[in-house]
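QA checklist item 7 of 12: single-chain prediction sanity check.
[x] sequence parsed
[x] length recorded as 511
[x] structure emitted
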Amino acid sequence: MSLADRLQAARGAREAQTSAGTPGTPGLTTPGHSAPGSSDASAGDLHAAAAPGHPSSHSSAPTATGRAGAVAGTATSPRTARLAAGPDPVAELKRQVHSQLVASLGPKLYDAALSAEDLEAQVRSALSAAVDAADRPMSGRERSRITQEIADDILGYGPLQPLLDDPDLTEVMVNSAQDIWVERDGRLQRVDATFTDEAHLRRTIDKIVARVGRRVDESSPMVDARLPDGSRVNAVIPPLVLDGSTLTIRKFAPDPYTADDLVGFGTLTTEGAELLGACVRGRLNILVSGGTGAGKTTTLNVLSSYLPDDERIVTIEDAAELRLMQEHVIRMEARPANIEGRGAVTIRDLVRNALRMRPDRIVVGEIRDAAALDMLQAMNTGHDGSLSTVHANSPRDALARVETMVMMAGLDLPVRAIREQVASAIDVIVQQRRLKDGSRRITSITEVVGMEGDVVTLQEVFAFDHSAGFDEHGRSRGRLRATGLRPRFLETLSDSGVRVDPALFLTRGGA
């Protein structure tokens, strides 16, 4: 019988087997292949039909078993392994209890008259009853876990809540519902926490942004927000991200850091802290410069702690993060456009309005656009002692960025005029970096001296000394040291009644 005839016979036998629901003809399968009637029957038929020595019997295409083995032998990432592991075995129970809890409490969850403590007590009471009513035997540990996770969903931010409560974490990064990372001691680590699905992650994002009057949807897929403690939040949703929504939370300490804390962390030295404190009290205009995650906002918070209690302070931010301890503080926050594209209030609008609010000091969280022009004008028109931050890699780059942002205002100003404004307005630039070991260090305290020709001249008063190298754990041994140059702004500080010990600027050897 020819090969074609044998293939035809095999197909006919298989069709007869399927229609009759009876086992196929034994002679049409070979040992080691799937039993007749299984999904691999056609593969068995083809192998049986191919006579030994026939070209089809030496095909290089892998069998189903071979393909499975190849896949099984392939290394998979932890994220892929978690996805392949399937859903949480108690996820359905959590959904049922969660639904019962919401149905039983109803509007109480949004009752403004209830204090946080009363709401938590009612939620946990109703949650305990809902878990008791669930028709499923549970161990004490499993019950405790489900109760806590649902309470976190209702009262907090779901699987992120334990991470936000951990004081050792400085950043929480959600790359997708199943992929969450944190920063601990300046190092990135993946954690086991996951969201149930994309919808669960989106609900958490919506809860965060709604509390500060922001929104995120397809028409506005990026949003900056903040948590009640001031921690910075950024969220991006599809279609701008391809693998699911992302959420980045930069945590702030429950209690604002002080200069002593920065000295203890190694971010700053005692001498540097004393000089910066004198600069703030002496009403010098200070610009904190650095890259993303370098700690600029933390440093700005510490500098603001030196502001006197008897002055009127106005803070202006995209998302309110600064926490000033003074009594007379007005906090202002920019507002994005509404769903119709109207109603936006920019940092520049707020800076201009702040000038009408009789401020003694203006603190701008970050200069990032044409607001730089209004900020410089404020500094040059009697609002000395203003503080702000800017993204830049060095003091010289910071001046160049401010110059560029002034040009964004659309005014046809000569470059020299802009530089004169910059040189006259800014007195001190504090440069901060996140080093390779993850530590955040102030690497330069630089005085803006003035103009020489068309160039703004700078003088470095303190500089970071890298010569000490690194220890056995890879941590930098370097520290901020005086360069030996006395800044010219000492006369300005003296006129304000602020005295600085000249010994601060002496160069010292040793560690």
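[x] summary fact logged: The first strand starts at residue 169 and ends at 176.
[ ] second reviewer sign-off
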